[in-house]
Amino acid sequence: MGVVGIVFALFTIGYVLGVWTACGVFRQPQRAHEDAERQS
Predict the structure, then answer these.
(1) Percentages helix, strand, coil for the chain, rounded to the nearest 5?
(2) Cα separation, 40 vs 24, whole angstroms
(3) Residue 2 to residues 7, 9, 20, 23, 29: CA-CA distances in angstroms?
């Protein structure tokens, strides 16, 4: 049970970090695109 818990914890942390990184990467171009639409 201990090993399974550690593996599950690592998988969960990796998943959360992956989603957080993806949100950060996708949010930057979107913000630049919105600023470009406001200026025109």
Answers:
(1) 95, 0, 5
(2) 25
(3) 9, 11, 27, 32, 42
Strands (E) in 1-40, as ranges, are none
**pTM of the predicted model, to two decimals?**
0.57
CA distance 7 to 5: 5
pLDDT tens track for 7-36: 999 999 999 999 999 988 877 766 666 677
d(CA 20, CA 12): 12
What one-character DSSP code corresponds to residue 3?
A: H
Separation between Cα atoms, residue 3 and residue 10, nearest integer Å: 11
